[in-house]
Amino acid sequence: MHDVDEFRVVAHPATERMLRKIPVESRIVAFWRTMIGKKVAMAVTGAVMALFVLAHILGNLKVFAGPDEINAYARFLRASSAKSASPRSATDNSSGSRGSSSSPAW
């Protein structure tokens, strides 16, 4: 009969030595390259997306609360987007005149 300690799963010693010598910013890359790192990234981005969708569902449900509620929500969205908006570039086709810019107007 084999000893139970022979079959114990341990990390590869060379990998452990390499991880100790890697700088911090490269540890993130090393973690990303593992299966667990990709699963963690998928879980985090999935949670963020679910919260984003839930927030928009709750905002759109304000339609049923009446015109004052939806107007207040619209003012909130405009105010929050104005704070996070970047300055428009010179090639932005926001003036409404088509053809003046080299970018296509989709």
Write structural notes for this entry.
The protein is mostly helical. It has a domain at 9-82. It has helices spanning 13-21, 24-32, 35-60, 67-84. The radius of gyration is 26 Å and the shape is elongated. It starts with 12 loop residues before the first helix and ends in a 22-residue tail after the last helix.
Q: Termini, distance in Å?
A: 72 Å
Q: Helix count, per DSSP?
A: 4
For this entry, what is the oligomeric state of its chains? single chain
Share of helix, binned:
55-70%
Radius of gyration: 26 Å
Which labels suit this protein?
mainly alpha, 4 helices, 58% helix
Short recap of the structure:
With 106 residues, the protein is mainly α. It has helices spanning 13-21, 24-32, 35-60, 67-84.
Secondary structure elements and pairings:
Blueprint: H1 13-21, H2 24-32, H3 35-60, H4 67-84
